[in-house]
Amino acid sequence: MSLTELLSIAEAEALIAQHMPSFGSERIRLDRAAGRILRQAVHAEHDHPPFDRVMMDGIAVRWSASLPREFTLAGSQMAGMSMQTLADATGCIEVTTGAMLPIGCDCVIPVEQLRRDSAHYQLIDGYQPSRGQFIHARASDCVAGTRLLEAGMRIGAPEAALLAANGLASVEVGKTPSIAIVSTGDELVDVGSSLGEGQIRRSNDIAIATALRLHGFDRIALEHIADDVAATQDRLTRLLGEHDVLILSGGVSMGQRDYVPAALDALGVRRVFHRIAQRPGKPMWFGIGPRQQAVFALPGNPVSALVCAIRYVKPALLVSLGMKPAPTEVVRLEAEVDTNPMLTCFVPAYVQTDAQGRSVARPVPARTSGDFSALPHTHGVVQLPPGNARVPAGSVVEFHRW
Amino acid sequence: MSLTELLSIAEAEALIAQHMPSFGSERIRLDRAAGRILRQAVHAEHDHPPFDRVMMDGIAVRWSASLPREFTLAGSQMAGMSMQTLADATGCIEVTTGAMLPIGCDCVIPVEQLRRDSAHYQLIDGYQPSRGQFIHARASDCVAGTRLLEAGMRIGAPEAALLAANGLASVEVGKTPSIAIVSTGDELVDVGSSLGEGQIRRSNDIAIATALRLHGFDRIALEHIADDVAATQDRLTRLLGEHDVLILSGGVSMGQRDYVPAALDALGVRRVFHRIAQRPGKPMWFGIGPRQQAVFALPGNPVSALVCAIRYVKPALLVSLGMKPAPTEVVRLEAEVDTNPMLTCFVPAYVQTDAQGRSVARPVPARTSGDFSALPHTHGVVQLPPGNARVPAGSVVEFHRW
């Protein structure tokens, strides 16, 4: 297959988006919802604040142009108490932050501006309060029924605050799919085993799982399949029965032991595409199973697998949870990068904001797609479009975080 | 207390840093380590790659200036097999990606450049292989013993890959502290209860918990204390016995019901500071308990509490886990902002990268420190230093994410 017949990045993304299933939604407790994707709109349960709310500790009085300098203590209105009434313009009611403003009052004078003398409060010399001060008026933030949150938002601290303030002890969120991450290859041994001749440790599965766990995917199984056609078929049959998403690494190139595409085909997983005009990650394969399982088969090289996982798999899974896609991050290249004019190239990069507030990327090219020893000192990959053999310093390019 | 006597942001940060305890470390399974902070260095267990590694599916041959165009199949070397030997320069060994390079070979020819004819492989017309091609040489990524990861790194996908590749089935990480998040105030009711007159729902606790959970803090209890001096004392006694960190909200101003500072003092929690020259969040209090518990007492207003939590509490906790602090993010202001020349002001902002790769912040000022209804459409707060009544558009300022 010549390079010009391969899919572009945009074509691959569009095909994935067209075919990805939804994983539905579920109702979970609010205190378990950090990082989950909201699948409901949220409206104000009541006015915010629900009453004229005192903003300072002090006294509440009835303002006038001829406001007295001394007030007789006529009661107290603490936060959480039902509403008191001030009968008299020469009187005052002690108030605390968060209390309802007492009936008959329209001015709060903070304790720092007061002297207390048994049953009286005096304004300190020179202090001139104004009408309406330190009152957070009912409904001034929003009126009951205002739409506050939309489906598709990720639940961080501000969203959690609004959910709680509006009485949502449980919340409808995107249901996380059951994901199997499957490495293939006879040369791969478990992290806990000792290495024999010709062996290396499995690392793609844990790397991809870590990337997904950091985005809230919590139902992940790690599996390994040896290079054997019958074993591949058997295990894939079981995994397709048990999971919503399969992410395979290895076995998708053109070698005689690349059993994965044929095995998937035999199991009714319909190929949507195979190969993208990119480096690394050209052999990536994507298909849809008979029960709408999403199957991503990534190359086995560590850098290739990770790039495909963060560039295609993670965003597709987040959209399937219901997340509204965030704008793509862009960065300025600090140095020129040699690239392949026929392929989109992904190059690991260290990113920092400079003194002008620009995100600047220092490319850290991996020597081979098997070399991942330098990746921990990078933040992700810059995406360099095809067309030129060299992308100059100062170019603004897409950036995708690990 | 006049504004000039308050602590600056930098002074408050330095005092917190001086006093924060370490929470120690623990050994956990690698597949549970996403987002945790590494507390050990990691060195290469062996050379990477550990052998001369084949990078393509195809054949391995012995290169020479007079390389034949046809090779006799003399064996196969699959990934994971122990090393084969090529006896003869006219022969070839079938190889798969990830296999050891057979002895006697120094060139890999990819399957795309070959035609197979029973027991022979022929180079396709015009193809000229070069010596050493498609071989990922032993130790070319790094030699055994190379330092690959340092203590203080957060475990994301690339770090997890290296941990796995070097045989660390378990890993030493910062132990997360046991944290109690405590709201105070009679006006506050639980998210699941119905609202009475003068009441609002608790939301600071869940907001702070959500912010911390998203950074890997998983041992969090939510508590509520009514405005009662004896209850405050009793509950704080128990909480100081059970937790490493207390984060209180409310009860730290100057009102007659602000029992928190006195109660903490009576329990032997030594005040490190009270009040910072900032808006919102001026009344923030920080102290250290008799068992080195860190106690943060934040103001009760939702915006104030959240700003203090993300600006001081979260970074301090991450450093105490052993995390190497990341450089502070900076952004350009898209619009001018009115500010208070005596105080550092935090203003919620929406941040996006523009076409030049600059992070641009659109300020979304909250009308009051009680108004959090607009926060979900922002990404964090810009930090505007004191000194001017207005910060002009185009200024580059610190940005702190929710």
Automatic annotation (TrEMBL), chains A, B:
Gene3D superfamilies per UniProt: MoaB/Mog-like domain (3.40.980.10), MoeA, C-terminal, domain IV (2.40.340.10), Molybdopterin biosynthesis moea protein, domain 2 (3.90.105.10), Molybdopterin biosynthesis moea protein, domain 3 (2.170.190.11)
EC number: 2.10.1.1
CDD domains xrefs: MoeA
Protein's UniProt keywords contain Metal-binding: yes
Entry cofactors: Mg(2+)
Ranges annotated as spanning the membrane: none
MoaB/Mog domain mapped to chain residues: 180-319
Family matches, as InterPro entries: MoaB/Mog-like_dom_sf (IPR036425), MoaB/Mog_dom (IPR001453), MoCF_biosynth_CS (IPR008284), MoeA-like (IPR038987), MoeA_C_domain_IV (IPR005111), MoeA_C_domain_IV_sf (IPR036688), MoeA_linker/N (IPR005110), MoeA_linker/N_sf (IPR036135)
Superkingdom of this protein's organism: Bacteria
First-tier enzyme category under EC: transferase
Metabolic or biological pathway, per its Swiss-Prot or TrEMBL entry: Cofactor biosynthesis; molybdopterin biosynthesis
SMART domains linked to this entry: MoCF_biosynth
Keyword annotations of the record: Magnesium, Metal-binding, Molybdenum, Molybdenum cofactor biosynthesis, Transferase
Cited Pfam families: MoCF_biosynth, MoeA_C, MoeA_N
Keyword Cell division tagged: no
Catalysed reaction, written as an equation: adenylyl-molybdopterin + molybdate = Mo-molybdopterin + AMP + H(+)
Family to which the UniProt record says this protein belongs: Belongs to the MoeA family.
Record function comment: Catalyzes the insertion of molybdate into adenylated molybdopterin with the concomitant release of AMP.
Protein name: Molybdopterin molybdenumtransferase
Species annotation: Dyella halodurans
Species classification: Bacteria, Pseudomonadati, Pseudomonadota, Gammaproteobacteria, Lysobacterales
